[in-house]
Automatic annotation (TrEMBL):
SUPFAM superfamilies: alpha/beta-Hydrolases (SSF53474), Galactose-binding domain-like (SSF49785), P-loop containing nucleoside triphosphate hydrolases (SSF52540)
Protein name: ABC transporter related protein
GO MF annotation, one: dipeptidyl-peptidase activity
Transmembrane region(s): 637-658
Leader sequence segment: 1-42
InterPro entries: AAA+_ATPase, AB_hydrolase_fold, ABC_transporter-like_ATP-bd, ABC_transporter-like_CS, Galactose-bd-like_sf, P-loop_NTPase, Xaa-Pro-like_dom, Xaa-Pro_dipept_C
Entry similarity comment: Belongs to the ABC transporter superfamily.
PANTHER family for the chain: ABC TRANSPORTER, ATP-BINDING PROTEIN
SMART domains noted in UniProt: AAA, PepX_C
Highest classification ranks of the organism: Bacteria, Bacillati, Actinomycetota, Actinomycetes, Geodermatophilales
Length: 976
C-alpha cells in the first residue's frame, strides 16, 4: 500500500497535526461524556514494598510473602484507605497483582500476600481456618494500622476493605466475621458452607422469598469427588517439586520444608548429601502424603476420598472453614459477586451469604455474572467487575468530602440478561446486557421472589444405577465447562439410568433467574438412593441443552421400598440464568450417575415419578423483573455523535501517521507456503489488563490434513481462529496462510473459508438468498461460487428456499457451513461444525470434511467434543489455558498404552489369559460385562498380544479401549 498523498501544502512543524488531532479528540470525548474520571494516582506512580511477615507462634508459626502497592498520593499528611487482596486456591500474591495495581492507581494502599502454604509463604494450608489464615489476616491489619500513610478510624484500626475470589472470597467473609476492623468486603465466587458445597444434597423446602435459595439435607450429601480431588491435588503438590519440597530447591522448596515441621529449613540440593539424622521420617511421610495441608485437613480428605461419606470429623473441619456460622457478626457492607457458570460454588452459596449478612441490617449488594469456576469471564466482564469492586470501596471506604468517592452503588441486584441457546448448540449467548433490580429478592425490605408454575408430565419410571457407578453420565468436568456430549456425540444421558418429565412446548419465552423447585416421588428397595436432578432446554428439533452443565445431587434416605407408595421429596434444581425460548420445552431429568461425584458401589433399581399423585406436576421457576441495560449502547444521540466524530478523527490521525512512514513494509512469502497452508510461530495474544489468552503457540498444518483444534472452554481456540482470520492481531509471533503473513485485509484470506462464532445469517432471507448475498459481497464471479455443491452440503432440500427465521438451529448450522464452503476454499476453518446436527447429518458431515481434505485442501476443526475430533480429524492440537500441550496424529495423542478389550475364541480360556497378562510388567486385568479388560501400564499392546499367542490362547479380538477422551483428560489434568 502506497502512502496517502494529497495536494502539496506548507509543511507544519513536526507533531503539530498529531497534537491538534489529539486535542480535538480529547475535547470531543470530554463533551460526549466518555472520558473516565482521572484516577487518584497514575499506575506509573505506584511503588511496591516487598516484605516477609511472621505470623502465628510455636508450631503454628509461618512467614507470609507480601507486597504493598503504594500510590504516590498516600502520605502521612494525606493517608489513604487500604485494601487487602486475597488470592484463590492454588494461587499466590502474583495472581492478584493486576487488580492491586489498578486499585493503587485509584489511590488505595493495597496489600497482597501469598496465604500460608502457597507461593513463597511457609506454613500449612488450613482452608481458611480461623486459627490460621483468618488470624493471619488480622496480623496483616495490625501492620497496616502501624503505617502513617494508611487512614485510621481509631488507634490500631485501619480504614480497610478486603476482596478476593473463591478461597480469597471466603477469607474476606470470615475476616469480617472475626475482626470488626474490616470496613467493607467484596467476596467473589465463594462458598457459604464448604460442607454443603462439597457434600451437596438439594432436598427439602428452601428458604422462601429469594430466587436461588438452595435446600441442603442435614445429614450430608453426595461427595463432589472430582472437585475435591482437584483441590487436594493442587495443595498436595509441593510448589518447588519433590526435591524443592525437601529443601534442596528454590524458595518454594525451603518454605515447604520448613512447613513440614521437623525438616531442616535448608538442605543441600543433592539428596545423597542429606544427613539422615537431620530428617524426621514421619515429617517426610506427612509431606509426601498430605503435601502442604494441615494434618486435620489431610485426614478429612483421605477419609472422604476413600468412603465418599460425610463424617462428624470431616464436617467439623469444613464447618470451621465456612462463613455460615459467623455471618450474623458481619457489619461491613458486602458486595457479593457470584458466577452463573460454576459447578463448584453455585448461586445458592451466594444466596445463603446474602440472607445471613442482611438479616441484621448490614448493606448487601448481589451481582451475578456470566462466568465462574467452569468458564472464564470475558475481558469486558472482568473489567466491569473490577469497576464494581472499586466503586464499592470508593463509597464505603472514602470520606464523604473525598472528590474520588463516587456514586452510591446501592444495595441492588444485577445479573446477566437471560438468553437462550445460540446456533452453537449447548452454549448460552454471552452478550453484554445486564438486568438490574432495586434489591435482591427476599432480603429485608425487598419484595419476595416471583415464581411461575410450569406443568410437566411423565409416568413413573425405573432408574437403574449400575454396579460401581460405571458407566456414569458426563455433565461437567471441573474447570473445563460442559462436556455433556462427550459420550456419544449427542446424548447427554445414559439410557436406562434416568427418568424424564417434560412440559408442553412453551407458548412464550420463559426467563429463569435462580433455582427452580419440583416435588418428586421416589422408591428404593434398599431405602436409600443417590440421584441427580437437572433442568434441560429442549429445542423443537429435539436437541437438549443443559444450562451451564449444572446438576442437583440428591442423597435420599428413609425411602419407601414400594413403587406403588413412593416417598415424596422436595427438590431444588440448580440455580441458572437462562431463557427458554417459545416453542422449546422444559425437561426435568433425574439420573442415577454423574462422573463428577462419588457413587454407590451396589447396583439398584429405583422408581421415580412426579409427586402430584398422577402424571403431571408443577415446576416452580423463579423470575425477576428489572431494567435491562446494554453497556455497549446509549440512548443519548449526542454521545453517539461524539463517538462517531472521535472515530473519524482517529481514522484521520492514523492515515496521517501512516502517510509519514518513510519505508514500505514488504511481505516475505515463505518458500514452502503452498505445502504448509497454515503455520503459527510463537503466537501470543495478551490484553491490556494482563490477561494472556494465547501464549507462545506454534504448530503447522499441511495439505490434505483435517486438523482438530481441541481444548476446554477458555483454552484459547476461538482467539487463535480470530487471529488466523485477521480479525484481531497477535501481540507477538507470526501467522502465515500459504506462506503469506496474516494481517487484516491480507489478499490471501480470499483462499480461506470460515465459520466461527455464530452463523450471521439474515433471518428474513431464505437459505439460498443468504448464500447468494454472501458470495456477492466477495465481488467474485457467480460461477466461482460452486453454489450447487454448497447447497448439496447443506442438505436442506426444499427448505433452502424458506426464510431462515423458520429454520431450526441445526438447519442454520448447515447453511452456515455451506456458506463457508462457497468457492471451494483451499483452507476451510470451522468452529463446532456438528453442533445442532442429528446423528445421520453428523456422519455425513464427517464424510464431507474428510473427502474435502482428500482433494488436497486443508480443514481446521475447532471443537470441545472429543468424539467428533477423534472420528473426523487426522491430526490434533490440544490446547489448555492458552497454550499448546500436545500435537500429533490422533493415534499419537491417544498413545499405545491404556486399556484393551480381549476377545477370546473360547471363554474357558479366560482364567489362563488373565494369568498370562497379569504376569507381564505393570498389567492388571478386570472382568467386565464386555469381556476381559487389561490395563497396560508399562507394557505395549504388541508384547501383550504376543504373550497370549505364545501361551496357545486363541484371541478373537484385541481392541484398544483408550480413546481420545481419556488422553485429553489426562493431558489437561497434567497441565493443570
Amino acid at each position: 500500500m502506497r502512502p496517502v498523498r494529497g495536494p502539496v501544502r506548507p509543511r507544519p512543524r513536526p507533531g503539530a497535526r498529531a497534537t491538534s488531532a489529539a486535542l480535538l479528540l480529547l475535547f470531543t470525548l470530554a463533551v460526549a461524556g466518555l472520558l473516565p474520571p482521572a484516577p487518584a494516582a497514575a499506575a506509573e506512580d505506584v511503588t511496591t514494598e516487598e516484605a516477609r511477615v511472621p505470623v502465628g507462634t510455636g508450631a503454628d508459626a509461618a512467614e507470609l510473602d507480601t507486597t504493598l502497592f503504594l500510590p504516590a498520593s498516600a502520605s502521612a499528611a494525606e493517608p489513604a484507605p487500604a485494601v487487602v487482596l486475597a488470592h484463590g486456591f492454588g494461587g499466590s500474591k502474583d495472581s492478584v497483582a493486576t487488580d492491586a495495581r489498578d486499585l493503587a492507581g485509584r489511590g488505595y494502599v493495597v496489600l497482597t500476600y501469598s496465604a500460608r502454604g502457597f507461593g513463597e509463604s511457609t506454613g500449612r494450608i488450613g482452608l481458611n481456618d480461623p486459627h490460621f489464615e483468618v488470624a493471619d489476616l488480622s496480623a496483616l491489619l495490625d501492620r497496616l494500622a502501624a503505617r502513617d500513610d494508611v487512614l485510621l478510624d481509631a488507634e490500631g484500626d485501619p480504614r480497610v476493605g478486603v476482596a478476593g475470589a473463591s478461597y480469597g472470597g471466603a477469607l474476606a467473609l470470615l475476616g469480617a466475621g472475626y475482626d470488626d476492623r474490616v470496613d467493607a468486603i467484596a467476596p467473589q465466587i465463594t462458598w457459604n458452607s464448604l460442607t454443603a458445597a462439597l457434600f451437596p444434597s438439594q432436598l427439602g423446602e428452601p428458604a422462601a422469598g429469594t430466587v436461588a435459595a438452595t435446600a441442603q439435607a442435614q445429614d450430608g450429601g453426595v461427595y463432589k469427588r472430582l472437585w475435591s480431588g482437584l483441590f487436594f491435588g493442587v495443595g498436595s503438590a509441593p510448589s518447588g517439586g519433590l526435591l524443592g519440597a525437601l529443601g534442596g530447591g528454590d524458595g518454594d522448596g525451603d518454605g515447604a520444608a520448613a512447613a513440614a515441621g521437623s525438616l531442616p529449613a535448608e538442605l543441600p540440593g543433592d539428596l545423597g548429601a542429606i544427613d539422615p539424622a537431620a530428617v524426621d521420617p514421619q515429617a517426610v511421610e506427612q509431606l509426601l502424603t498430605c503435601g502442604r495441608f494441615t494434618p486435620e485437613v489431610c485426614a478429612a480428605y483421605q477419609s472422604a476420598a476413600s468412603t465418599g461419606t460425610l463424617t462428624p470429623e470431616i464436617a467439623a473441619v469444613l464447618d470451621r472453614s465456612s462463613p455460615a456460622p459467623v455471618l450474623e457478626r458481619i457489619e461491613a457492607p458486602t458486595l457479593l459477586v457470584q458466577g452463573t457458570q460454576d459447578s463448584l460454588f453455585g448461586l445458592g452459596q451466594a444466596d445463603a451469604n446474602a440472607r445471613g449478612i442482611a438479616a441484621d441490617g448490614t448493606p448487601v449488594k448481589v451481582v451475578w455474572y456470566q462466568g465462574g469456576h467452569d468458564t472464564q469471564a470475558s475481558e469486558r466482564t472482568t473489567e466491569q467487575l473490577r469497576e464494581q469492586v472499586a466503586g464499592w470501596f470508593d463509597w464505603h471506604l472514602r470520606s464523604a468530602d473525598d472528590p474520588a468517592r463516587g456514586p452510591d452503588p446501592g444495595t441492588g441486584f444485577e445479573f446477566p440478561a437471560p438468553t437462550g441457546v445460540t446456533a452453537t448448540v449447548g452454549t448460552v449467548q454471552g452478550g453484554n446486557r445486564t438486568v438490574t433490580a432495586p434489591a435482591y429478592p427476599g432480603l429485608a425490605g425487598a419484595e419476595p421472589a416471583q415464581r411461575s408454575a410450569i406443568a410437566v408430565d411423565g409416568p413413573l419410571q425405573p432408574v437403574v444405577t449400575p454396579a460401581g457407578g460405571t458407566p456414569a453420565a458426563i455433565t461437567v468436568v471441573p474447570g473445563l465447562g460442559s462436556l455433556a456430549a462427550a459420550l456419544s456425540g449427542t446424548a447427554f444421558e445414559i439410557p436406562g439410568q434416568f427418568a424424564a418429565f417434560q412440559s408442553e412446548p412453551l407458548g412464550e419465552a420463559v426467563e429463569v433467574v435462580g433455582a427452580s423447585t419440583i416435588d418428586l416421588a421416589v422408591a428404593s428397595p434398599g431405602g436409600s438412593a443417590t440421584l441427580f436432578a437437572k433442568l434441560y432446554d429442549v429445542a423443537p428439533d429435539g436437541t437438549a441443552t443443559l444450562p451451564a452443565g449444572l446438576v442437583a445431587p440428591l442423597a435420599l434416605t428413609g425411602l419407601s421400598g414400594d413403587p406403588t407408595a413412593p416417598t415424596q421429596v422436595s427438590v431444588t434444581l440448580p440455580g441458572i440464568v437462562h431463557r427458554f425460548e417459545a416453542g422449546h420445552t422444559m425437561r426435568v431429568v433425574v439420573s442415577s450417575t454423574d462422573q463428577a461425584f462419588a457413587l454407590p458401589s451396589e447396583a439398584a433399581v429405583y422408581s421415580v415419578a412426579l409427586a402430584a399423585g398422577g402424571d403431571a406436576a408443577a415446576l416452580a421457576v423463579p423470575q425477576v423483573d428489572g431494567r435491562t441495560e446494554d453497556p455497549s449502547g446509549t440512548s443519548r444521540w449526542w454521545v453517539l455523535l461524539g463517538v462517531v466524530v472521535a472515530l473519524g478523527l482517529l481514522g484521520w490521525l492514523a492515515a496521517v501517521l501512516w502517510g509519514r512512514r518513510s519505508r514500505r513494509r514488504v511481505s516475505v512469502v515463505e518458500p514452502d507456503g503452498e505445502d504448509v497452508p497454515l503455520r503459527f510461530t510463537g503466537v501470543t495474544k495478551a490484553y491490556k489488563d494482563g490477561f494472556v489468552a494465547v501464549r507462545d503457540l506454534s504448530f503447522e498444518v499441511r495439505r490434505g490434513q483435517v486438523l482438530g483444534l481441541l481444548g476446554p472452554n477458555g483454552a484459547g481456540k476461538t482467539t487463535s481462529l480470530r487471529m488466523l482470520m485477521g480479525l484481531i492481531r497477535p501481540t507477538e509471533g507470526r501467522i502465515t496462510v500459504f506462506g503469506h503473513e496474516i494481517r487484516p485485509g491480507t489478499p490471501v484470506l480470499s483462499r480461506l473459508g470460515s465459520f466461527v462464532e455464530g452463523t450471521g445469517l439474515m433471518p428474513h432471507l431464505s437459505g439460498r438468498d443468504n448464500l447468494r448475498l454472501y458470495w456477492a459481497a466477495t465481488g467474485r464471479p457467480a460461477d466461482d461460487a460452486h453454489m450447487d455443491e454448497a447447497i448439496e452440503v447443506a442438505g436442506l432440500g426444499a427448505a433452502i428456499d424458506r426464510p431462515v427465521r423458520r429454520y431450526s438451529q441445526g438447519m442454520r448450522q448447515r447453511v452456515a457451513i455451506a456458506q463457508a464452503m462457497l468457492g471451494l476454499p483451499d483452507l476451510l476453518v470451522l468452529d463446532e461444525p456438528t453442533n445442532g446436527l442429528d446423528p445421520p447429518q453428523i456422519h455425513a458431515m464427517r464424510e464431507v470434511l474428510r473427502s474435502y481434505a482428500a482433494t488436497g485442501r486443508t480443514v481446521i476443526v475447532s471443537s470441545h467434543l472429543l468424539s467428533e475430533i477423534e472420528q473426523t480429524c487426522s491430526h490434533v492440537v490440544v490446547m489448555a489455558k492458552g497454550q499448546k500441550i500436545a500435537q500429533g496424529t490422533v493415534e499419537e495423542i491417544v498413545g499405545t498404552g491404556g486399556s484393551v478389550l480381549v476377545g477370546l475364541a473360547d471363554d474357558a480360556d479366560g482364567d489362563r489369559a488373565a494369568a498370562v497378562l497379569t504376569g507381564l510388567p505393570g498389567v492388571t486385568v478386570e472382568r467386565t460385562d464386555e469381556g476381559l479388560v487389561a490395563d497396560l501400564d508399562g507394557t505395549g499392546r504388541a508384547p501383550a498380544l504376543q504373550a497370549l499367542v505364545a501361551a496357545g490362547i486363541a484371541v478373537d479380538a484385541f481392541t484398544p479401549r483408550r480413546r481420545l477422551e481419556d488422553a485429553f483428560l489426562a493431558l489437561v489434568g497434567e497441565d493443570s
